[in-house]
Write a structure and sequence with these properties.
- The chain is α/β, with parallel strands linked by helices.
- It has helices spanning 2-10, 24-32, 65-90, 105-112, 128-133, 138-145, 177-191, 209-220, 240-243, 266-281, 311-321, 323-333, 339-362; strands at 39-43, 49-51, 60-64, 120-122, 197-202, 225-231, 234-235, 238-239, 258-262, 287-292, 384-386, 393-395.
Length: 398
């Protein structure tokens, strides 16, 4: 329909085959001057899958123009930010491990759109995008990556240990965040509010014993816990088919209901999370959600990512399933944005990331005394922090 309308606008009397003669500039010109809509109904083409549930979320979702532009900007900014992180690692400005979220942007943006600010999130070491979505600026992320005082953990946490408002990390041990997430959900139920905790893990962590222990206690106590498997197809360099006897991760909770969603579609993820939030806030107990997604980089920056898959396979996903390109096409097709508007957003995102990057590089490194701070959440009177030997002690400061 979009193609036909473009052809009609440029050559209303010509046959459809005249579209072959249209210059790209003509198409862009028409699209950039079309009247935009304030809201549209969009169909989720890849259906949800359910486990121990009867009624899936609607396959038709409403999207406002404002939300569409916001989601596009968030995904594009995350993509740019992770590109900057990759370059910093290559420059050796980032030391240690660095796990990028490139390709998975629809997961965190879609889920965040359905959360309240007070809902908690805890994830694995692939945390840069999530800490940004929980309120930390691009500068706060990049400064943390290069070990500067302006970082969200004052330069002491690095890539795998970032924290923000109602965001509990960034956890470096595979699967360790899952029982912690159950504990956060327990605290919410104990306090009597209707918030819930989103606990995110990858397919590589899905076979951890601690995962099933957390599932068990969460179901026993009907905790408000949303366990999300971001299945990007590979646990380090091992495909899901080689590592898991059951690759339907949304069913792995057994006695816990589950849902599968296309993790490359930001609207599908948002709809599934809204549906899950209603279930959890009603006190019906935990849920497992699997987001089928894909990472373009290797497991970490030290992994080229091409020894267990081909470059052609990665390019095929980029061409056919990329979450940003897919969403851009939806916005244009449903008259929610013009080509020129989206190009302007791209330029804004590049500028914001470039400025944050320059500021992060110029920021101050933490002084040596910072080693002894933030061990306790509050200063404890009379308690001292032992130094590197038995004779050196420092005051306890928050």
């Amino acid at each position: 329909m979009l193609l036909r309308s473009v052809v009609a606008a440029v050559n209303p009397f010509g046959p459809l085959r005249s579209c072959r003669l249209l210059a790209k500039t003509d198409v862009a010109k028409v699209l950039s001057t079309r009247n935009v809509s304030t809201e549209a109904e969009i169909e989720i083409k890849i259906p949800y899958k359910l486990h121990r549930l009867e009624h899936p979320p609607s396959s038709k979702v409403k999207l406002t123009r404002d939300d569409g532009l916001k989601f596009y900007r968030q995904m594009q900014l995350i993509r740019r930010m992770e590109t900057a992180a990759a370059n910093l690692y290559k420059e050796k400005a980032i030391r240690g491990f660095c796990h990028l979220y490139t390709g998975q942007e629809a997961c965190c943006v879609g889920m965040s759109a359905a959360l309240r600010p007070e809902d908690a999130v805890i994830t694995s070491y692939r945390a840069h995008a999530w800490v940004y979505m929980k309120g930390i600026s691009v500068f706060g992320v990049l400064a943390e990556l290069v070990g500067r005082m302006g970082g969200c953990s004052k330069g002491k946490g690095g890539s795998m240990h970032m924290y923000g408002p109602h965001f509990y990390g960034g956890n470096g041990i595979v699967g360790a965040q899952v029982p912690l997430g159950a504990g956060i959900a327990f605290a919410m139920k104990y306090r009597g509010n209707d918030n819930f905790c989103v606990t995110i893990y990858g397919d590589g962590a899905a076979n951890q014993g601690q995962l099933f222990e957390a599932f068990n206690i969460s179901k026993l106590w009907d905790l408000p816990a949303l366990f999300v498997c971001e299945n990007n197809g590979f646990g380090m360099g091992t495909s899901t088919e080689r590592s898991s006897a059951n690759t339907d991760y949304y069913t792995r909770g057994d006695y816990i209901p589950g849902i599968w969603v296309d993790g490359m579609n930001v609207l599908a993820v948002r709809a599934a999370t809204e549906w899950a939030a209603e279930f959890l806030r009603a006190g019906k107990g935990p849920l497992v959600m699997e987001c089928a997604t894909y990472r373009y980089h290797g497991h970490s920056m030290s992994d080229p990512g091409t020894s267990y898959r081909t470059r052609e396979q990665i390019q095929e996903v980029r061409a056919k399933r990329d979450p940003i390109t897919h969403f851009r096409d939806d916005l244009i097709e449903h008259d929610l944005a013009t080509v020129e508007e989206l190009k302007a957003i791209d330029i804004e995102c590049k500028k914001e990331v470039d400025e944050a990057l320059a500021k992060a590089k110029a920021d101050q490194e933490p002084p040596l005394g910072e080693i002894y701070t933030h061990i306790y959440s509050q200063g404890v009177p009379g308690v001292q922090i032992r130094g590197c030997d038995a004779f050196t002690y420092y005051p306890s400061t928050p």
